[in-house]
Amino acid sequence: MTDTPKQLGFHMPAEWELHSAVWLAWPHDITTFTQGINKAEKTFCDIIKAMEGSEKVELIVLDNIMQSRAEEMLKNSGVDLANVNFHRVVYTDVWTRDYAPIFLKKDVWTKWQYNVYGKANDDPIYWTPLAKDNDVFNKIALPGKKFEPGIVLEGGAVDVNGQGTLLTTEQCLLNPNRNPNLNKTQIEQYLKDFLGVSKIIWLKRGLANDHTDGHIDDIARFVAPNKIVCAYENNETDENYSSLKDNFEILKNSTDQDGNPFEIIKLPMPHMWYEKGHTVHSATDSASKLQRGEPEKAAVSFANFYIGNKVILVPVFSDQNDSSALQTLQSCFPGRETIGINCGNIIYGGGTIHCMTQQQPS
After folding, report:
1. Taking the chain, what is the end-to-end CA distance rounded to the nearest angstrom?
2. Edge-to-edge strand list for the sheet holding 278-281
3. Contact partners, residue 101, CB within 8 Å, separation at least 6
4. Which residues contact 345 (CB under 8 A, 6 or more apart)?
5. Catalytic: which of 45, 172, 332, 355?
6. Domains defined along the chain, listed by start
7. CA separation for the pair 72, 61 (Å, rounded)
8. SS3 for 47?
C-alpha cells in the first residue's frame, strides 16, 4: 500500500501560513456571470491588484487571445504584470478553490475529484460543461509529488487550523451526491490520511440556497489556531438564523486537537436577494420585495475572505454590515491590511473571493 501524506509527515497548512503564490482563473463563462463578463473581469483586476506585494498570481486563461485581453485590462488597472504568471488551458469556471489541488507544501499536493457539486445529473445542459474543470490541473501538470485520494472533495468544503483540526459540514461531505458509497467514518479517514489532520469538527448546514450544499468557507473560518470567526444572523425571521445559530453552538462546545476550547467570534451577515436578474438589498428594498413576490435569498457571506501573506481580501456588497465585517476581520489580523473588494458583480456566479482563489504554500 502506498504511504499516505499523513504517514509521510505532510499536512495541510493553515491559510495564514506563508504562500508562494495564489491560483485564479480568468472569468469567461457567460452562464456563470449573467450580469456581464466585463463586470466580473473588472472585479478580478481589483483582486489581482490587491495581491501585489503579498504573493505571486498564477492565472489560468483559455488561450493567447484571452491572455492578451487579461494583460490589457490588468495593465489598465495598474497591475504589475511581472507579478502574474499565465497558464493556457481549457476550463469553464473560476472557482479554483473547488477544483484545484489542495496543497500540503509548494511541491506536494492532493488532487481530489470534482463532480460539479454533485449537480451534473440535476441539469446536464447547465452543469455538464463544468465537469471539464476536474482535469484542469492534470493538464497544467504541476511539478512535485501528487497524491490522488480518488474521492470527491471541493476545497471550499474544508478549513484547517494547521495544527490538526479541520472544519466541515455534514450537509456537504455527507451528501449522497458526492461519495454515496462512503460513510462518515470512512470520509473522516480520507481527510485524516490525505490532509494530515487528527480532529474533525462537523457543523450541520450551510447557507440557504447554496448550490455547494453548505461549503464551510461561507459560514466558519479559522483565523488563528485557537480562534474561529462564525457567520451569525441576529434576525430570528431570517432563513439562515436557525442553522447559523446551531453552528455557533457546536463551535462553542468544540475543542481543538489538544482538547482546548476555541475563541468564537461572530461575523455579521450581508443580506441580498435575487429577483429577475437583479439584486435586492434588504436595507433599501425589504418592503417592496414583498410586493413583487418573494425572491430567492442569495447565499452570500463575509466569511468568504482570502488570507494572503500581507492582505486579507474581504468580499463586500454595499451592505450595511460591510464596515462591521471589515473591522472584525482586521482585529483578527493586525499584521495584515484588510481590503474590501466589492463583489456585487460576481456573487451572481455563486461565490466570491475565497471560492476563486487557491493558495500554494511556500
Report:
1. 29
2. 278-281, 272-275, 296-297
3. 109, 110, 111, 112, 137, 142, 146, 358
4. 33, 35, 36, 39, 40, 42, 43
5. 355
6. 19-361 (3.75.10.10)
7. 13
8. helix
Decide if 355 is catalytic.
Answer: yes
Q: How far is CA 296 from the centre of its chain?
A: 21
Predicted pLDDT at 245: 98
pLDDT at position 152 is 97
Q: What are the tens digits of pLDDT across the range 217-264?
A: 999 999 999 999 999 999 999 999 999 999 999 999 999 999 999 999
Q: Looking at the DSSP assignment, which residues form a beta bridge with residue 230? A: 220, 266
Per-residue pLDDT for 273 more than 70? yes
Q: What Å distances lie between residue 57 and 15, 49, 66, 86, 154, CA to CA?
A: 16, 10, 16, 8, 21
Q: Are 67 and 85 in contact (CB under 8 A)?
A: no
Residue carrying C-alpha cell 440535476:
122
Per-residue pLDDT reduced to its tens digit, 173-192: 999 999 999 999 999 999 99
